[in-house]
Design a protein that fits this description.
Elements: H1 5-19, H2 24-42, H3 50-84, H4 99-113, H5 118-132, H6 139-153, H7 161-168, H8 173-177, H9 179-201, H10 216-239, H11 241-246, H12 249-261, H13 272-290, H14 302-311, H15 317-327, H16 332-341, H17 351-359, H18 366-372, H19 374-390, H20 399-404
């Protein structure tokens, strides 16, 4: 049927992840090795056959993979610092006692994700939910936490790697900011549904535990780590964007901050083995996607952009965004919304989802995620419709030439 065999192998890998959610790591690694062997024996890597092609691909992707690994592991420890600070124990006195408490928690996650890495925002949201709902969090609410973290970063050039890529390529931050028209509509819809869903499953804690002692030192550690990540991201994007291509700078910054503060408040190092398994799973899927022979996208249109949101639920949104920038002709607010938010529809569709499922393994079921988090997909479509109705499709033809000469930054999802 004209479908490259690479894509068939990738589709079978994703199907295996969906069907055998208790063995996702083994399935992802098997798929990655199978695709690599097929391309070594019968295909090529971006036009270069054999081991030289594979070596070239790894040389191109190692920064992305190292950044992902550093962020996933580092933010797992950060979320534990945050939960052990006991600040979350004060939230029952601040949030409403009914379903609206869950609603406002999701709004908080979306807001902090506008200036914070979406992995960190999702992990902080998961830590807060763990306390507020006594460890019983509905899968649909987990999907909503991931969706809120991704939606919050969709309209900010420092909130998501895809939007940062657009900024570097010459897209105005104002054009990216337009994505919030869709993101706000989506968040309002799925947050109401998910909060009611969670309230029926496990009501929110009504009162804070007595004599809460907030560990201000751990909060300071959390702040230091986050400031290190944000400052590194913004400084390098403004001053030395090529450095993001050459080194996993943001992941390094997180770990330098973690190690520098370890003598003050020691992280829970025992969390790393579990987080490492989830991280390797995501890295394997990223490598599978990187080996796909995608050289062009369909002609730019609002329908194509809508479809890219669904594709990003199973395909790394970094190469999708890079291809769109090279091709040109997109409305960048629409694209930022689609590729930034679309990955929320499946648990492994974004790094935030994988990170959160390291905390909540029950989320590693595509069937349960889609069944419980159906409101995320509906919210995505409603948000996209809002963009069309409020702003209309207004493609920008001028970014294409600039983007060809711009480097693609390392992934910091």
């Amino acid at each position: 049927m004209g479908v490259p065999f690479d894509f068939i192998l990738f589709a079978l890998t994703l199907l295996g992840v969906a069907l055998f959610h208790h063995h996702t790591l083994q399935v992802a690694l098997t798929g990655m090795v199978t695709i690599a062997l097929y391309k070594l024996l019968l295909g090529d890597f971006g036009g270069v056959p054999g081991l030289p092609g594979l070596a070239g691909l790894l040389a191109h992707e190692w920064v992305t993979l190292a950044n992902l690994l550093g962020l996933l592991l580092g933010f797992a420890l950060l979320a534990d610092h945050f939960e052990r600070s006991h600040l979350t124990d004060l939230l029952p006195d601040v949030l409403p006692d009914d379903w609206k408490g869950g609603f406002w928690l999701l709004v908080i996650v979306a807001v902090i994700s506008s200036f914070l890495d979406n992995i960190a925002a999702a992990m902080l949201g998961g830590a807060m939910a763990h306390v507020l709902y006594r460890g019983r969090v509905h899968v649909g609410y987990l999907a909503a936490i991931v969706a809120a973290s991704n939606a919050g970063g969709a309209g900010s050039v420092v909130g998501d790697t895809t939007t940062t890529m657009m900024w570097i390529a010459g897209v105005s931050p104002v054009q990216v900011f337009e994505a919030y028209v869709g993101a706000i509509v989506a968040v309002l819809f799925f947050s109401v549904v998910a909060a009611r869903q969670q309230h029926a499953y496990q009501p929110i804690m009504k009162d804070s535990p007595k004599q809460v002692n907030v560990d201000h030192a751990r909060l300071a550690v959390v702040a230091i780590i986050l400031v290190a990540a944000i400052a590194t991201n913004v400084f390098l994007n403004l001053r030395h964007p090529q450095a993001l291509n050459d080194w996993p700078a943001i992941g390094i910054a997180v770990w330098v901050a973690l190690l520098a503060t370890a003598g003050w408040r020691s992280p829970t190092w025992s969390l790393l083995p579990g987080a490492l398994r989830g991280s390797i799973f995501l890295l394997a899927l990223v490598m599978c996607a990187a080996m796909m022979p995608v050289k062009a996208l369909p002609a730019a249109s609002w329908a194509t952009t809508l479809g890219l949101g669904f594709v990003s639920a199973v395909f790394d949104n970094i190469p999708l965004t890079a291809l769109a920038l090279r091709q040109g002709g997109y409305d960048w607010g629409f694209l930022a919304y689609a590729v930034g938010f679309g990955g929320s529809m499946i648990w492994f569709g974004s790094s935030a989802g994988v990170a959160l499922c390291n905390m909540y393994p029950e989320g590693r079921s595509v069937v349960a995620w889609v069944r419980g988090g159906w409101h995320v997909a509906v919210g995505y479509v409603l948000g996209f419709a809002a963009l069309l109705l409020v702003l209309g499709w207004a493609p920008d033809e001028h970014v294409q030439s600039r983007s060809k000469s711009q480097p693609v930054p390392a992934k910091s999802p």
